[in-house]
Amino acid sequence: DTGVSQDPRHKITKRGQNVTFRCDPISEHNRLYWYRQTLGQGPEFLTYFQNEAQLEKSRLLSDRFSAERPKGSFSTLEIQRTEQGDSAMYLCASSPVGTPRDTQYFGPGTRLTVL
Amino acid sequence: LAKTTQPISMDSYEGQEVNITCSHNNIATNDYITWYQQFPSQGPRFIIQGYKTKVTNEVASLFIPADRKSSTLSLPRVSLSDTAVYYCLVGDMTVTGANNLFFGTGTRLTVIP
User: Fold this and answer.
1) Which 3 state secondary structure label does DSSP give B29?
2) Which of A48, A75, B60, B112 pairs as cysteine with A69 (C-beta 3.0–4.6 A)?
3) Beta-bridge partners for A75
4) Interval A56-109: pLDDT, tens
5) Tens-place pLDDT, residues B23-81
């Protein structure tokens, strides 16, 4: 399977704990995106990387959130001091240079539940 | 700021053609129109993209009138497995980032046996 993969698929944590999610994009894709999706809503943009550079961050990405893509390949999204409002599906997507930015390939997501 | 408007939900019987219309009155010259499909507990899946007139692929057709202020996703002969949420997006094809890529709430299509 050469699609976008995310790990873990599910994460249950207690309020106040830190969590980290991983995304492995399609290998030749140098653009990587993180989204958050809550029940009944569409995905909301969080942040965007081109190679290892984080080029955009949404105002939704509070200072408890940090994302990295150290070698321009996989990416991690960390949430510190989790809150119940952080419960959501966290989606990663990737796309190759040369295509319109709307052509994104999504992973299966990591569902976070904060108790 | 929402750039698109689409029905919240639609029902269809199996085997019928389904047309989902999206309004984007403020579409700009550089904007593409893109549709995604999302099944429960999965990430969205790219279906089709177009700029004007008609685009067809193995999954769907996309009809875009000359003024580009709306678009219609057409799914031929739907089956139960087409039950999903369908999102219409309008985005600037010259922009590489994603900060104002807005999915909205989509159209929940339910296919009935």
Assistant:
1) coil
2) A75
3) A23
4) 888 888 899 999 999 889 999 999 999 999 999 999 999 887 766 667 899 999
5) 999 888 888 899 999 998 899 999 999 999 999 999 999 999 999 999 999 999 999 99
Q: Kindly report the nearest CA distance between residue A80 and chain B, in angstroms.
A: 23
The structure tokens listed for B38 are: 């999302």
The single residue listed with the structure tokens 């678009």 is B71
**Chain A contacts of B44, Cβ < 8 Å?**
43, 91, 106
Is residue B8 within 8 Å of B104, Cβ to Cβ? no
Single out the residue of A62, A99, A100, A53 nearest to residue A81, CA to CA.
A62
**A38 and chain B in contact, CB less than 8 A:** no
- Burial of B109 from C-beta contacts in 10 A (0-12 / 13-18 / 19+): buried
Query: Rounded CA gap, A91 and B74, in Å?
Result: 27
For residues A95, A98, A103, A109, the Cα torsion angle rounded to the nearest 10 degrees is 10
- Give how far the C-alpha of residue B87 lies from the chain's centroid of Cα atoms, to the nearest Å: 5
Preferred mutation among B8, B71, B99 to probe A, highest tally of A CBs within 10 A = B99
Q: Do B21 and B33 touch, CB atoms closer than 8 A?
A: no
Amino acid code (one letter) for A53: A
Task: Check CB contact of B96 with chain A, cutoff 8 Å.
Answer: yes
Identify any residues that bridge with A6 across adjacent strands, giving them in sequence order: A23
